[in-house]
Amino acid sequence: MIRAYKFLIRPTVGQAQALTEMLRDHCALYNGALQERRDAYRHPSKTSIRYGQQSAQLQEIRAFDPECQGRWSFSSQQATLRRLDKAFAGFFRRVKSGETPGYPRFRGVGRFNTVDFPKDGDGCRWDSTPHAPVTRVRFQSVGHVKVNRHRPVIGKVKTIAVKREGRKWFVVLTVEQATPEPLPKTGSMAGIDLGVANFLADSNGQFVPNPRHGRKAAAKVKATQQALSRCKRGSNRRRKAVRRVADLHRKVRRQRLDHAHKTALDLVRAHDVIAHENLTIRNMLRAPAPRPDPDRLGAFLPNGAAAKAGLNRSVSDAGWGVFLTILHAKAESAGREVIVVDPRNTSRTCPRCGHVAKENRLTQEAFHCVACGHEAHADTVGAVNVLRAGLVRRDARTG
Fold first, then answer.
1. What is the DSSP string of 190-213?
2. Which residue of 76, 119, 190, 398 lies most exposed, with the fewest beta carbons within 10 A?
3. Which of 176, 210, 228 delimits the end of a domain?
C-alpha cells in the first residue's frame, strides 16, 4: 500500500535561498528540454527526441554549467525530464483520442514549484529516527532542513519531493506500507448522494451540510483581486497583492480538504460498505453549446450559460472529486468496501415501487412518486437507490 505524507519544513534564510535556486535551475532544465523538442520537430527531418536521449545529455550539461546544473542531484534532474516526457505523453494521448491537445508550455520561475527525488538517499535523505526531538531532511547542496513532523511516518520512504506553496516550503513523502489492520465491523451499509444544496445525503436519512467555503470567501477574494488590478506591474506593491490573493485561494483549498477528510473519516468509521455514484465531474462542468439563431446571422439564442456557470461554480466549490479520492484511500486503509454505481435515474426511481419517471422529482428536494404516491427527500431517495444498486453489483461480482 502506497501512502503520502506532507510536512511543513522550516529552512533558514540561506537554505530557503538555496531551495529557490534549485527550483529555478530545474525550471531552466525543463524549459531547455522543451525547447530542444520543439526545435527538433520543427526541423525538416521532423526528428522526435525521447527522454532517454535527453537524459544522456545530463552529464555534459552538468559539466558545462557546474555552478547551476552541476550542483544538484542527478536523479532529481532525471525526474524533471521524466516530468516533461509525461507531459508530452499526455499531449499525444489527447491528440489520438480527439480531445483538446494542450501542447506542453514553458514554465515561469514562479510557476515551477516542485522538485522530485525518485529515491530516498539519492540526492535527498529523510531522517527516519522515530522519536528524534527534531526531524530533518537533507537535500543535496542545501543541507539539513528542519521538518515539522506532526505525525509519525509508518513504512519505508520511497520517494521525496520538495514543494513551494507561496512563502512556505513542504516535503512530500511517498511511503510503502504494509496493509493495516481493518477497523472493527459495524454491520452498517450506506449509499451516498452528492449534491450542492447539501454536500451529501446518505441512505439512512442523514445530511452533511455544504460548507460553501469558496462562496463565503468570494467577496474577500474579489476585493483583493480588484486591489491587485490597480497595482503597477513589476512593483513591490503588486507582488504583495499577488501573495494576498494566492493566500486566500490556498486557505479555501485547505478548508475544502479539511472538510473532505473529516466527512470521509466519519463515513469510513460508521459503515462497512459505502456506495456512491460514478460521477464524470469534468463532463458536468462543461459549458452549454451555443445555439445559433436561424433567423439572424451571427446572433445566438439563450442557452442557459449564465445559470450553468453558477452551477459549475457550486460544483467546483463542493470539491466532489477530491472527496471521493480521499474516501477511497481511507476505505482502503480501514478495510472498508466502496462500490461505484451508474448514476442514471437514481433520483427518478421510486424506492418503494420502482417506477421511473422525470415527474417523480418535483423540485430539487421533493420526491413524489406519480405511481404509488411515495414521498421523501429527493437526495435520500437517490442515496437509497445508490445503495441498492451497489449491493446488486456486489452480489453479481461475488456470485
1. EEEEE-SSEEEEETTS-EEE---H
2. 398
3. 176
Distance CA 343, CA 192 (A): 11
Residue 339, SS3 per DSSP: strand
pLDDT 10s digits, 147-184: 999 999 999 999 999 999 999 999 999 999 988 889 99
Of the three residues 155, 176, 197, the one that is the final residue of a domain is 176
In the predicted model, is pLDDT for residue 399 greater than 70? no
Q: What is the Cα–Cα distance from 269 to 190, expressed in whole angstroms?
A: 12
Q: Determine the average pLDDT of the residues in 380-384.
A: 94
pLDDT in tens, 222-278: 999 999 999 999 999 999 999 999 999 999 999 999 999 999 999 999 999 999 999
Instruction: Quote the domain boundaries for residue 109.
Output: 2-176
Compute CA distances 73 → 68, 85, 361, 396, whole Å.
11, 19, 60, 51
pTM more than 0.85 = yes
Nearest-angstrom CA–CA distance, 47 and 307: 48
What is the rounded distance in angstroms from the CA atom of residue 365 to the CA atom of residue 378? 5
List 273's β-bridge partners, or say none. Answer: 189, 337
Side-chain half-sphere exposure of 213, counting CA atoms within 13 A: 17
Looking at the structure, do residues 314 and 269 belong to the same domain, yes or no? yes
